[in-house]
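Supplementary Note 3. Input sequence used for the single-chain structure prediction.
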Amino acid sequence: MVQNEEKLLKDYFDELSLEAAEVHEVKLLTAIRSGVHGSRGGRIPGRRGYFLGGLAVLAVVLMFAVPWIGGREGLPNSTIQSQLGSVHDWGEFEVFRTAVGSNLTVSSALDAGLVQRVNGTSAERSGYRLTVDGIAADQKGIIILYTLQNHTLENTRKFRISMVNDEDAMVDRYGPRSVQNSKPGITRGYQHILWDEEYKELPDRLFVKAGLYDENERDVARFTTEDYAAELSVPIALNQEALAKAGQTLKINQNMILAGQNIKINSVYIAVSGIYVEAEYDERNSKEIFGLISPQLMLGRSNDLTELHTKRSISQDRIRTLVFDNVNTSKEPLEMRINGIQALDKNAMELVIDTDKKQVIKGPDDRIKVSVNTGASGKRTMLLEVYPSKQRVRAIDDVNMILDEDFTDGSGTQHTTRFEDISVPMRKESTVQGAIPVLYYYNIGNEALPEPLTFKINSYPNPIKEQVSLAIRK
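The predicted structure, written as discrete structure tokens, is reproduced below.
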């Protein structure tokens, strides 16, 4: 669906902007430390994750309850500043310092000595050698340090790292990572993967895979596993008993109330791969909540605080798991803050439109405009323009308007919206800041339908700002 594609693109660029925001002070400190130790090898890889070698056992890694956070805006507090500013010896992993860069979860896991060295885990093929150097895993995800050696004379060859099961299915919740270039010599990198299912459902063995593409492949956005020119796969054994003991779960079971709506914080899981806050929306709420505005973890004491923002969120029914970075070297107090919600009254979840008159008969507010374009073949494309709310939020906190794909006409007959083969007419947007709408196109077919048309709203950008806080750990 068009709106789903828009959401995926939005999520992708939002996540890029979050990563850029991480650079700040931490990047400077990392640069200083890199200068002290000396820069050795590596490149910064793209974000995301097969046939020789022994099994790398995920065991020791995670017998520890691993504390705290990362992913910040602004400067860290003085305590965290001193911890980040001090030089931690990464031992054999020192060569990964440049590749890890400013990723707080991965760098602090190395600072804390939580990444386990893996020996004898390599695969070779077509002049390439893939080695898994270190791992750290828990119930929610895994950190992988890898080395890809290119012994060919090819200047560049594209590759993608992934993690799969015996059936070659991805186990990463966010799917395949971006395609990277491998130059002759050594490329070091890392993958920070979140499990796509409960850890108890994972098999006893997984594979870290490097898929290599022919250098003449150009459409990298459409690369699939079927396009691989060659694959290297390294097996990794999972120790379920060790995973069960990994990290620390805090039972919170307390409510946060925003705009009269109840959000229950059920639990917080703190481990080497991150901090996971489970929030549940009360089904008795008068509003349907589509998202939270600027949820934060505040790390530190009193006025000496570091703001830690969400990296990702995982939704399932009314439960949303917020994923934060983890500064694995800190045990500072932790407070949860939410600065508002994106929500609509449950009695305002319908959009009623007369496409003949080009009028919105009923909607959540007056920010929606409608027009219809009829193509040469008689195909009708409905265009909905949604103008910005007066309550502005960061792009990462915004949500899209999403309509249910099924709608009813004036006679009560149900139809399904088609999102392919739409007609997009030329238009000129306003140059006034804040007056540019988000556009949504819908193919409503060739035949005129009994008016009006009624759509169910599944998501809508309606920010309600209000700050609440809750102590997570004292």
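The two ends are 45 Å apart (CA to CA). The chain has six helices and 28 strands.
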